[in-house]
UniProtKB/TrEMBL annotation:
Domain ABC transporter: 3-230
Name under which the protein is recorded: Energy-coupling factor transporter ATP-binding protein EcfA2
Membrane topology reported for the UniProt record: Peripheral membrane protein
Source organism (scientific name): Bariatricus massiliensis
Record's subcellular location: Cell membrane
């Protein structure tokens, strides 16, 4: 699925004392199947930008297109879009809410209409990919360590087999080995499928070898957009 942002602006708490113009006139085209890295200082707008990709937040101004279709148009099937776009939040707690890890990872595929058996097959496959051991599957996600929560949250999105995978600092808090394992798996899945991947990171170094393109955000704007210097 190709993505296009046309003059996207986003203002938090518009009209209040806390107003913040977090995205300023973003124009971007992401072709189908591209692996894009987004970096930038804290507060530069990375998380705000990527939450637009599954319609979680709506541009204050401007348009977002998927395959040429305006997702803000009346009648656009946002639920279908959400079933195809997997978003891993910066803070994994934001997407773990079921009684156990298995149920959490099954949540996405279940919404896609898969049977319980199919959901479990998908979930086990995804949990293995992210390296979370079987003994955690029936535990409450709240009892996991930070790194384990992150793995569970990533598995939940991978189990959807999304056409577009959006990850907000998915390896924050993991040790270098864990970080490389997860990124290697995502790169492998990207090669295997024709999935578009959008990966937010704090560090150019961590992601340069994986991505086709680097976007650098600065104060709500795109400051640099090119192939990475390796
Ligand atoms: P980080 O690297 O720390 O995750 P980021 O690049 O993801 O930062 P955003 O979270 O997109 O940055 O924030 C962009 C700007 O919008 C920041 O100035 C931030 O303070 C502001 N902001 C973010 N969320 C809100 C909110 N809910 N209400 C008001 N302002 C917000
Ligand atoms: Mg962020």
């Amino acid at each position: 699925m190709s993505i296009k942002l046309e003059h996207v602006n986003y203002i938090y708490s518009e009209g209040t004392a806390y107003e913040k113009h977090a995205l300023k006139d973003i124009c971007l085209e992401i072709p189908h199947g591209q692996f894009v890295g987004i970096i930038g200082h804290t507060g530069s707008g990375k998380s705000t930008l990527i939450q637009h990709f599954n319609g979680l937040i709506k541009a204050t101004d401007g348009v977002l297109y998927y395959n040429g279709e305006n997702i803000y148009a009346d009648g656009y099937k946002m639920k279908e879009l959400r079933n195809q776009v997997g978003l891993v939040f910066q803070y994994p707690e934001h997407q773990l809410f079921e009684v156990d890890v298995m149920k959490d990872v099954c949540f996405g595929p279940k919404n896609q209409g898969l049977s319980d058996e199919e959901c479990e097959v998908r979930a086990r496959e995804a949990l293995q990919l992210v390296g979370l051991k079987e003994k955690y599957y029936d535990r409450s996600p709240f009892d996991l360590s930070g790194g384990q929560k992150r793995r569970a949250a990533i598995a939940g999105v991978l189990a959807m087999r999304p056409k577009v995978l959006v990850l907000d600092e998915p390896t924050a808090g993991l040790d270098p080995k864990g970080r490389d394992e997860i990124l290697d798996q995502i790169a492998y899945l990207h090669k295997q499928s024709d999935m578009t991947v959008i990966l937010v990171s704090h560090s150019m170094e961590d992601i340069a070898k994986y991505v086709d393109r680097i976007i650098v955000m600065n104060q709500g704007q795109v400051m640099y957009d090119d192939i990475p210097k390796r």
